[in-house]
Design goal:
Layout: H1 21-32, H2 38-45, H3 49-61, E1 81-89, H4 94-102, E2 107-112, E3 119-125, H5 128-138, E4 145-153
Antiparallel strand pairs: 1-3, 1-4, 2-3
Helix pairs in contact: 1-2, 2-3
């Protein structure tokens, strides 16, 4: 479950504002453990609780922090099949396609991309039958979708991520 809200249209890649070293320290701690209390967060970053609370509230308000969520193991919750689906769309269909994809169960993330395809979607399903339904019956039914190409994921690892604390 996630309390994350998607960024506003046209906002990708635009920072909300400059972050100072204290903000980046707060973000680094929250990236390590999003369940930290404000008290623990303040102690770890060597600031007062009221300062930590105000800074986190500001970063939530300005969209720097988009939400708090638990990172789940897909297999542990019954999602044994993972795939990336590349989608080619009609040139003017992005908004219509995005609205359609947003409504499809099992699509965890999708992005407008440059290159040979137009959209890349991360799909997690219980099995290959459900994946087939998502790709062939749901995604390909969206007006403006021309073609899809699917890559099955055999194993996943987590990268280092953004080095906020450095």
């Amino acid at each position: 479950m996630s309390s994350e809200t998607p960024p506003a249209a046209g906002q990708a890649g635009r920072p909300a504002g400059p972050l100072d070293p204290t903000d980046t320290a707060l973000l680094a701690e929250l990236q390590r453990d999003g369940r930290l209390s404000i008290r623990a967060l303040a102690e770890r970053t060597h600031i007062s609780r009221s300062n930590a609370y105000a800074r986190v509230a500001r970063m939530v308000e300005d969209g720097t922090i988009r939400g708090f969520s638990a990172r789940l193991n897909p297999r542990s919750i019954g999602l044994g099949t993972t795939a990336y689906v590349a989608i080619t769309i009609d040139q003017t269909a992005w908004r219509l396609v995005a609205a359609g994809i947003r409504e499809i169960p099992y699509v965890e993330h999708f992005a407008l991309i440059g290159g040979d395809h137009d959209v890349l979607a991360l799909v997690r399903t219980p099995d290959n039958t459900a994946l087939r339904d998502v790709v062939l019956d749901r995604i390909q039914d969206i007006p403006g979708v021309r073609t899809t190409r699917t890559w099955l994921v055999f194993e996943e690892e987590t990268g280092r991520g953004v080095p906020y604390a450095e």
